[in-house]
Amino acid sequence: MTQVVIREVSAFLLEDWLAFFDRDAFIDNREWAGCFCHYYHANADEKDWDAWTSAENRSAASRLILDGQLQGYLAYAGGHPVGWCQAAPRLAIPNVVKDKTLSVGDDRVIGSIVCFVVAPAFRRHGVARSLLESACTGFRKQGLRVAEAYPRPAAAGDAANCRGPLALFLEAGFKTFRELPDLTVVRREL
């Protein structure tokens, strides 16, 4: 397999990010194709999540990336994006902050990992693991002390594991912090 290179998303990489989401990210899961990782930033007071169109999500996510508000990492192989992980300080992800079931501890020191998407041909080749390690390294560089994620332990299949499979986090040294009805909060000290 081609070597994977991880880059932090920025305005400079917006076209690559969009190309990944437009072409490869959801080629085998059209149901999620319209999200554009906007879910955790969408204003529920403006309208219900299901009312957001794909075009609106694409445009909103693009603006958030240009403004530095939607943060994460792109994985590249052969010069093309093949994976994505949305990861940012918890305080930078509005719908994580608003979710009172997740808020335990000092939000100022927690980095949240909320989404993984890997192109089908690159799954089970360590891309998600590389993205996860890059996110944790990025959190440390930002002065955060805890990495946190929200996998769904009962998720079956790649699409349902969009938050990352529980095994990925446990293998990377995360520990179960709290179990909720639909998800498990896992944490790793940085």
Alpha-beta classification: alpha+beta
> How many helices?
5
- In the sheet with the most strands, the strands line up as 1-2-3-4-5-7-6
H/E series? EHHEEHEHEHEE
The CATH class assignment is Alpha Beta
Portion in helices: 25-40%
**How is the CATH topology named?**
Aminopeptidase
Our Rg estimate from Cα atoms comes to 15 Å
Number of strands: 7
| Mean pLDDT over the residues | 92
Question: How many structural domains can be distinguished in the coordinates?
Answer: 1
Q: What is the molecular shape? A: globular
Beta-strand content: 15-25%
Through-space gap between termini: 30 Å
Low-confidence stretches: none
In words, what does this structure look like?
By secondary structure, the chain is an alpha+beta fold. The chain has one domain (4-189): Gcn5-related N-acetyltransferase (GNAT) (Aminopeptidase). Helices cover 26% and strands 24% of the residues. The chain is built from five helices and seven strands. It has helices at residues 14-24, 54-66, 94-98, 127-141, 166-171; strands at residues 4-8, 72-77, 80-89, 110-118, 146-149, 175-179, 184-189. It has a seven-stranded mixed beta sheet with strand order 1-2-3-4-5-7-6, sandwiched between helices. The chain starts with a strand and ends with a strand.
Task: Chart the SSEs and their pairings.
Elements: E1 4-8, H1 14-24, H2 54-66, E2 72-77, E3 80-89, H3 94-98, E4 110-118, H4 127-141, E5 146-149, H5 166-171, E6 175-179, E7 184-189
Parallel strand pairs: 4-5
Antiparallel strand pairs: 1-2, 2-3, 3-4, 5-7, 6-7
